Amino acid sequence: MDKEFIHYIFTRGKRYIPAQVPQDLPRGRVGQCYDHCVASLLSPAQRRKYKYVEGITRDPRDPKRWVLHAWITDGKHAFDLTWGQMTPIGMLPILTDYIGIQMPIKKVA
Question: Are 97 and 58 in contact (CB under 8 A)?
Fold first, then answer.
């Protein structure tokens, strides 16, 4: 990954707290975070409630490695629609670092 981009995200990005995905946001498949997050915010009601974020996060399989990623936020929490840990009580968030920049969904779409 480009070191200048990582530096940009670290200096201009915001840290988000991983949280369980709200029931009104559909889960998607691993590897399709960008497309799925954009599609999840196409309705005006969802856009009023949530925002789209692109940034970097630690790879859950290798915490020393940062990866490009997208997620949804309420301004404070990272709602990761494609990563999660299945447990007997349901899908739990991956507890990792999320650093990103909110982007206007209409421009991204």
Answer: yes
